[in-house]
Amino acid sequence: MIKMSKKKETVKEIFASCSFSSLGLHSTLCDQLRERLGFEAPTKVQAQAIPVILSGRHVLVNAATGTGKTVAYLAPIINHLQSYSPRIDRSSGTFALVLVPTRELCLQVYEILHKLLHRFHWIVPGYVMGGENRSKEKARLRKGISILVATPGRLLDHLKHTSSFLHTNLCWIIFDEADRILELGFGKEIEEILDILGSRNIGSIGEGNEVSNVKRQNLLLSATLNEKVNHLAKISLETPVLIGLDEKKLPEDKSHVRFGSLESDVKEEVEHPSTTMRSTTEDFKLPAQLVQRYVKVPCGSRLAVLLSILKHLFDTEVSQKLVVFFSTCDAVDFHYSLLSEFQWSPHSQPDMELKQLFLRCKTFRLHGNMKQEDRITTFGAFKIEKKALLLSTDVAARGLDFPKVKCIIQYDSAGEATEYVHRVGRTARLGERGDSLLFLQPVEMDYLQDLEKHGVSLTEYPLLKVLDSFPLYGQKPRVKKFLTTESHPWILSLQNALESFIIHEVRLQSKMKKLAKDAFCSWVRAYTAHRGELKRIFTLKKLHLGHVAKSFALKEQPSLVGKSFQKQSKKRKRDQRQKGQSGKRKFPSKTNAK
Ligand SMILES: Nc1ncnc2c1ncn2[C@@H]1O[C@H](COP(=O)(O)OP(=O)(O)OP(=O)(O)O)[C@@H](O)[C@H]1O
């Protein structure tokens, strides 16, 4: 009963008590929302944003993750385009441009668009993104794409080099996940795009660029606000309507706001009364029904604890769907292979072990070093699974909508609080229940205070209780004797099994050992890449590298692993040099991180 009324309450908090048609959307579009997407009623964000966007105003939406921001901007744009008379056609080129930070998000938005346009066949959806075949994209642009979803780098490429790309009729530019676009270092590209499209605010248009005669409406959506987002709002939005921003977040003196720059962190004092929001520590919007916990784990037991918690979650919940975040691509690869291969049966005596896969669930991996096709396949497959595990870098942290994810584990800390918010935002979507679990080492506990500053508070996960629940050799360990995680018999046995698996696996021809070493090296490098205040919390000097090695099931001393570390560093420098020469965007210091 209580559960039911709670659910009702959450539904009330998320959904508006009106219909899509009452917001001014055409009945065919409302039918598409219902038939193609299964949306009966708008969410609150949609109910607020749709009429304002229909009215033609510039908009800045700051709403919690998973509240339906995508349809909030797609529906009114489609509504406008379907009403044009005479009907638009491909030869009119692009009318709306949706900018997104990642390839996966690009495909996700495109998919929704495709569904919504089913009955509006004259409005053509399309996408361009890094990693795709340029000539094929050129051909599609030449034919004409009415609503184009794009990642910034590839879009800029086409704006400069695809002469047949017609955008003189462009009416809308939408920045979806604006904060992420800027964090990924696309600030310069965005400024160039705005200049080429003549969509900078009057007074900040670059010299020699034509300003289109078509009336432009720009929309900016972000679950978090910071100075860079403020700056983008300043240069791209004209007297925007702020949706989801509390009045209390507006500065009292609206004439002087500090805005950051897209390119650097240098702040400037700018007068701009129309986009008067500032980055405060309360800018994080988290779903109210999300249960956030942390687990304190000594470094050397991290791997065994992760596996134990995963086992517990999959054993206790039939339809468990879970995402684990790691700091580097190599760490994802190592854990993926380990989970796919590691066999251990704790139920029988060690000498007569009956081996079976430790974790029996479908496991996927996703990171930026994977081939484009593999990323797309994983993305699609994990989406439809009911019981599955996804191991990922932050490439999956933003905007991706995987239905029914019940739990998010941050095995490696996100660092920036904004990233924490986006990672946990992959669960508890649209009023659903969701859990998140953050792994912290004893020396990292100050991170909780950092999160607290942003209004994010976590409670402790009952780890020992969970460990005690595992029967070892047919018996449950006796609870009281084992007060620490690292001395718990279950953890000791599992750690032993993991280490001998890495050493003795002959079948895999030492593949696991190499993966573990590479993962160790990249993890150490990522750990040293924390910036600013976080450097004080995540300090490599405070860690015992032998224990770090243990967390990759390695028995070797760190000095042995050091050789491969140097090799990786050299390779990284070489890659960076090559990237610099080819004029490509430089990634932040965390190479291998995405
Ligand atoms: N009106 C609606 N009725 C039912 N489901 C909806 C509605 N609007 C959106 N959804 C669903 O809610 C989920 C979240 O939507 P969406 O991805 O647009 O959220 P978001 O606010 O953009 O999240 P994030 O900030 O993480 O990108 C999706 O699965 C979407 O299909």
From TrEMBL:
Pfam families: CTE_SPB4, DEAD, Helicase_C. Residues 560-594 are annotated as: Disordered. Residues 50-243 form the Helicase ATP-binding domain. Keywords: ATP-binding, Helicase, Hydrolase, Nucleotide-binding, RNA-binding. GO terms for molecular function: ATP binding; ATP hydrolysis activity; RNA binding; RNA helicase activity. Residues 568-594 have a biased composition (Basic residues). The keyword Transcription regulation does not apply. A motif (Q motif) lies at residues 18-47. The Q motif is unique to and characteristic of the DEAD box family of RNA helicases and controls ATP binding and hydrolysis. Belongs to the DEAD box helicase family. PANTHER family: RNA HELICASE. This is ATP-dependent RNA helicase. The lineage of its organism: Eukaryota, Viridiplantae, Streptophyta, Embryophyta, Tracheophyta.
